[in-house]
UniProtKB/TrEMBL annotation:
In the C-terminal section; belongs to the class-I pyridoxal-phosphate-dependent aminotransferase family. The keyword Transcription regulation applies. It holds the Pfam family GntR. Keywords: Aminotransferase, DNA-binding, Pyridoxal phosphate, Transcription, Transcription regulation, Transferase. This is PLP-dependent aminotransferase family protein. The keyword Transferase applies. It comes from Intrasporangium calvum. Residues 20-88 form the HTH gntR-type domain. It comes from the Bacteria. Gene3D superfamilies: Aspartate Aminotransferase, domain 1 (3.90.1150.10), Type I PLP-dependent aspartate aminotransferase-like (Major domain) (3.40.640.10), Winged helix-like DNA-binding domain superfamily/Winged helix DNA-binding domain (1.10.10.10). The lineage of its organism: Bacteria, Bacillati, Actinomycetota, Actinomycetes, Micrococcales. One of its GO terms (molecular function) is transaminase activity.
Length: 477
């Protein structure tokens, strides 16, 4: 069974003194940690004695808090396991994450905040024009390139080399996006019932991909402690994960950036536990205030790296790839055949042109993302000042903590206010996180204030919009 140490509980609770009565204040703090997914459901809590010692509290305070949580359904007592976290029956956190795959129609006056993506990058049209010039020489072939066009694999290998990761083009398999790349890796390396470690919160389509591959997710909470090596090793050993899916570069949705020291420490844990790292670098080119360290695979030679053109260049350019050790690349290629037979030739040629264009186009891209981020930060601080969030050093998302749990009310009220939002619970691999919402800064800077106004309207109406109508599950990107 998953466990959490008294020291970790104390860290999560923070240094703020408890209010009065202390047992109710402690219960409220623990309740929030469980509901937010920071202490996972089905986790064995430390003993009362350990909590008393670590927190410096009396038995009456600790025991009273745990008794209150038992009465509310946030803790259950199991013979041989002590106090185990739970969610009350019927609570919204019990529902598993279910990011939809079919988007619903969007009225023209609704701003869609379910996509963390920018419009096409400057220079994309010119890249298409140059790619069309090279297309005729491919028209005399079958057009099937299961590994990807040789010139694209060479360009990607060169891109990795400039980032400090020498790469052979033979170690790259081109796919129809990073999501397709992850699906191919899961099919190649795992069997139904195997366990996969996922960060929580994380990219919802990764959760769905794991579950629909008949695999079992194991959660690693990374907010607010980040990728804590001790907790990572504990989660892997207790859960038996064979593979770990991680997003170290401007993590989706938190925007966190894993430092070089953290990469080496996490790599050491994965190596000791013989867990295969699958590293999603979808946002790696969107460093706004910080440049990512060397790629994770530089300190973990067995790592499998996923990449995509969607965030850096344009979501409509459906080209992704897998970089894997040579011995594994063949298995991934074979598994990929069960998904598709190749990636569109023209789009591959376009990406070749973009990679050859040099960093200037990406510098413009980052400048635009930075303007949009700063405008959204100002809008949220102006119109919903009680929402808490950090300003991420890169990526495309703000991960906002709400002062109270609105249930589904915020999403429903947002629709009425002209916004489409993704539920925070969709980013949780094991339930909870209803008190969070991801706000992409993908709208133009001059529209950010209007988003803030609509969010303020939705927040004001969140608790008046309770309804039995089933919520739609929008596509999330």
């Amino acid at each position: 069974m998953r466990t959490v140490s008294a020291r970790t509980v104390a860290t999560l609770l923070g240094p703020e003194p408890l209010g009065r009565p202390a047992y109710r204040s402690l219960a409220a703090a623990l309740r929030r940690l469980i509901a937010d997914g920071r202490i996972l459901v089905d986790t064995r809590l430390p003993s009362e004695r350990a909590l008393m010692s670590q927190l410096g509290l009396s038995r009456t305070t600790v025991g009273g808090a745990l008794d209150l949580l038992r009465d509310e359904g946030f803790i259950v007592t199991r013979r041989g396991s002590g106090s185990v976290t739970a969610l009350p029956e019927g609570g919204s956190g019990l529902a598993l994450s279910g990011a939809g795959v079919l988007p619903t129609d969007l009225p023209e006056d609704v701003i869609d905040l379910t996509y963390a993506a920018l419009p096409a990058a400057a220079g994309l049209t010119a890249a298409y024009e140059r790619a069309l010039h090279h297309l005729p020489r491919h028209l005399a072939t079958s057009g099937y390139h299961p590994r990807g066009l040789p010139e694209l694999r060479e360009a990607l290998a060169g891109w990795y080399a400039t980032r400090g990761l020498p790469t052979d083009p033979g170690d790259i398999v081109v796919t129809g996006g990073a999501h397709a790349a992850l699906s191919a890796v899961l099919r190649a390396l795992l069997d139904p019932g195997d366990r996969v470690l996922l960060e929580t919160p994380t990219y919802p389509n990764a959760i769905v991909g794991v579950r629909r591959s008949s695999l079992r997710p194991i959660a690693l909470p990374i907010d607010p402690l980040g990728w804590e090596p001790e907790q990572l090793e504990l989660a892997i050993r207790q859960g038996g994960a064979r593979l770990a899916y991680l997003v170290p570069d401007f993590q989706n949705p938190t925007g966190r950036l894993m430092t070089g020291d953290e990469r080496r420490a996490v790599s050491g844990v994965l190596r000791r536990t013989r867990t295969v790292p699958v590293i999603d670098e979808t946002f790696v080119e969107l460093g706004l205030d910080a440049t990512p360290p060397a790629p994770f695979a530089a300190s973990s030679p067995d790592a499998i790296t996923l990449g995509s053109s969607g965030k850096a260049w344009w979501g409509g350019l459906r080209v992704g790839w897998v970089r894997a050790p040579h011995a594994v690349a063949g298995r991934i290629l074979e598994a990929r055949h069960s998904l598709d037979l190749g990636t569109a030739v023209l789009e591959q040629l376009v990406l070749v042109e973009l990679l050859r264009a040099g960093p200037s186009l990406l510098d413009e891209r980052r400048d635009e993302a930075r303007r949009r981020r700063d405008a959204m930060v100002t809008a949220l601080r102006t119109h919903v000042p009680d929402w808490r969030f950090g300003v991420p050093p890169g990526g495309l998302n703000l991960w906002c903590e709400l002062p109270v749990d609105p249930g589904d009310g915020l999403v429903r009220a947002a629709e009425a206010s002209g916004l489409r939002l993704a539920r925070g619970a969709q980013f949780a691999s094991h339930g909870g996180m209803d008190r969070f919402v991801r706000i992409p800064f993908s709208v133009p800077a001059d529209e950010a204030d209007e988003v803030g106004r609509r969010l303020a309207s939705a927040w004001a109406g969140a608790f008046a919009s309770r309804s039995e109508r089933e919520l739609s599950q929008p596509l999330i990107a």
